[in-house]
Amino acid sequence: MNEQKYFSIPEAAKTCGVSRTTLWNWVKSGKINAFITPGGHHRILQEDMDSFLRKNSLASFDKTTRSTILVVDDDPLVLEMFQKKLTRANFQVETASDGFSAGIKISQIEPDLVLLDLFMDKMDGFEVCRMIRQNPKLNTIKILALTGMDTPENQTRIIREGADDYLPKTVDFKTVMQRIDSLLGTASEERHE
Fold it and tell me: Which domain covers residue 35, as residue numbers?
């Protein structure tokens, strides 16, 4: 029996394989029932979630739900490209355009993997990586560093900070996907069924 009796909005969104905005719109329109805690937070009961998933033929709450990837990069074109390609590959995708925003999103959504640029304003990728690894609640998140500043020093430094893997931005998307699949233990065939 599942000990969790209710879901937060981010948890429900992850379970349904949709963005938090989409899930929030479903709650506001009454498509899925939610209650408000005394602290003002919306929660969805397990039975309401199960009923909604069955009625809408969505994924059930188990390990078959889509993995969530947070793409962190200060280049809007890079964010857009990864959002499109990773969504097409059946991942749930969130984005952040700087390290500070990434830190907030990581705490909120606890992604399965962070695709992390190294050099950004406000907080660089090294600091983001360190922040993830120092938090016991977050340190199982996989980190794939991706940088345009490909040097042995940067690779050594980010791996030392706790990144699971490192790639230069010059690699093709197929290589990035292979590394993501390897880190998450997924296979492209499974995601395209």
Answer: 6-55
Same domain as 73, residue 148? yes
Reply yes or no on whether the pLDDT at 49 is more than 70. Answer: yes
Residues 81 and 11 in one domain: no
The domain spanning residue 148 has which CATH number?
A: 3.40.50.2300
Q: Of all helices (H) and strands (E), which one includes residue 116?
A: strand 113-116
For residue 187, the model assigns a pLDDT of 55
Matching residue, tokens 């919306």: 42
- If one compares 121 and 103, the residue with the highest pLDDT of the two is 103
Place of tokens 């078959």: 64
Beta-carbon contacts of 17 under 8 Å, excluding residues fewer than 6 positions away, are: 58, 59, 65, 66, 92
Checking if the pLDDT of 74 tops 60, the result is yes
